[in-house]
């Protein structure tokens, strides 16, 4: 069996790259929608572990680029924040460590900070 030339291997690799790039591109463009969709799955009374499983990790900044002021992921033990490209998930915990309230803030909301400060009582 003859050995394949470098040129043929290069053509094969380029073909695979071209064939798979639409799938990779579609996945990367739809990731933002999954963060908000996952947030919608969160229900009052869930535990911290359940929320972290749904949102993909502990409170923190998961945005691909900085998008304004970022509060500490866990503020005073009562509020937790997850920052994503399409918005911020805020969860309020009761004394038992279960969800008391939740809020999704979109960065394009003109009242973003006013709404946030009102929700946390400032």
Q: Provide the helix percentage.
A: 40-55%
* Share of β-strand residues: 15-25%
Count of DSSP helices?
Answer: 3
> Strand count, sense and closure of the main sheet?
5 strands, mixed
Give the tally of β-strands: 5
According to CATH, the fold-level topology is Beta-lactamase Inhibitory Protein, Chain:B, domain 1
Indicate the CATH architecture: 2-Layer Sandwich
Structural class label? alpha+beta
Mean pLDDT: 75
Number of domains: 1
What's the gyration radius in Å? Answer: 21 Å
Distance between the termini: 75 Å
Parts with pLDDT < 50 across at least 5 consecutive residues: 23-32
State the name of the first-level CATH class. Answer: Alpha Beta
Query: What oligomeric arrangement do these chains adopt?
Result: single chain
Order of helices and strands: HHEEEEEH
Shape type: elongated
Task: Walk me through the structure.
With 122 residues, this protein is an alpha+beta fold. It has one domain: Beta-lactamase Inhibitory Protein, Chain:B, domain 1, CATH 3.30.1450. The protein is built from three helices and five strands; from the N terminus they run H-H-E-E-E-E-E-H. Strands 1, 2, 3, 4 and 5 form a five-stranded mixed beta sheet that branches. A hairpin with a 2-residue loop joins strand 3 and strand 4. The longest helix has 35 residues, at 6-40. The chain is elongated, with a radius of gyration of 21 Å.
């Amino acid at each position: 069996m003859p050995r394949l030339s470098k040129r043929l291997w290069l053509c094969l690799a380029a073909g695979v790259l071209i064939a798979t790039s639409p799938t990779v591109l579609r996945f990367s463009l739809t990731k933002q929608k999954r963060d908000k969709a996952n947030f919608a799955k969160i229900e009052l009374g869930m535990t911290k572990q359940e929320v972290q499983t749904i949102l993909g990790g502990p409170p923190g900044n998961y945005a691909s680029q900085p998008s304004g002021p970022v509060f500490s992921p866990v503020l005073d033990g009562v509020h937790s924040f997850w920052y994503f490209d399409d918005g911020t998930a805020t969860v309020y915990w009761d004394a038992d460590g279960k969800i008391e309230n939740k809020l999704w803030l979109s960065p394009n909301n003109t009242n973003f900070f006013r709404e946030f400060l009102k929700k946390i009582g400032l």
